[in-house]
Amino acid sequence: TELGPFDLPLGPSKRGVGRVNWIAFDPANANNVFTGSSKGGLFVSTDAGASWQSGGTDFLLPNIGAAHVAVDPTDGDRWFLATGEGDALYDNGWNISHGVYRTSDRGTTWDKIGLDFSQWWGYQIKKLMIAPNDSNTIFAATSFGLYRTSNALDPNPANVTWTLLPTGGNNQSA
Questions:
Q1: Averaged pLDDT for residues 13-36
Q2: What does the pLDDT look like over 67-125, one tens digit per residue?
Q3: In the chain, which ranges are E strands?
Q4: Which of 100, 99, 102, 83 shows the shortest CA–CA distance to 39?
Q5: What sign results for the dihedral spanned by CA atoms 60, 10, 32, 63?
Q6: Which of 18, 86, 151, 172 gives 20 to 30 Å between its CA and that of 7?
Q7: Which residues on neighbouring strands pair with residue 103, listed in sequence order?
């Protein structure tokens, strides 16, 4: 049975939902379900998928694309959104990643907290993960490598910093 989302985003172009690329849950409330698409944006259900609403990306962000969302396990109103396609490369700018955004009011307002790849069209954010015991620490899997911030909750979004982590060492067997 198809569950949706069925409604077009609220944007003036009425671009449609597009393909659904991922699904995520609020770790503290399984009734809160999130899904997203590169051309349809973020969708949220508060009734385990019976109905869907826009997650607030239609008018408030420079790119409607929702590559992934991570919900703060200590505050279900706080979400972190990776923008863009997640898997696309060189698509004429339609789904480039404009970075990571956070909301503390369920998508009513968004703050950009960095990791903007809009100047490098081939780079995309694929997935976000919040550290299990520290909502201030977020990992971002990207097409360029693994990034980490340890100050994602800084009151000033401009102060949030991301570090590209070193990749593995010598993987040769002894």
A1: 82
A2: 999 999 999 999 999 988 766 655 555 577 889 999 999 999 999 999 988 777 678 89
A3: 22-26, 29-37, 41-45, 53-54, 66-71, 79-83, 100-103, 111-112, 125-131, 134-142, 145-149, 163-164
A4: 83
A5: negative
A6: 86
A7: 79
Q: 129: closest CA among 71, 75, 66, 77?
A: 71
Tokens of 163: 């570090």
Q: What is the phi-psi region of residue 148: left when phi exceeds 0, alpha when psi lies from -120 to 50, beta otherwise? A: beta
- Report how far residue 92's alpha carbon sits from residue 44's, in angstroms, rounded to the nearest whole number: 28
Find out whether 4 and 11 touch, Cβ atoms under 8 Å: no
- Cα separation of 116 and 100, whole Å? 7
Which tokens is 137 given? 């620490």
Q: What burial class does residue 131 get, using C-beta atoms within 10 Å of its C-beta: 0-12 exposed, 13-18 middle, 19+ buried? A: middle
129: left (phi > 0), else alpha (psi -120 to 50), else beta?
beta
Task: Tell me which residue has tokens 């008018």.
Answer: 59
Residue holding tokens 């593995």? 168
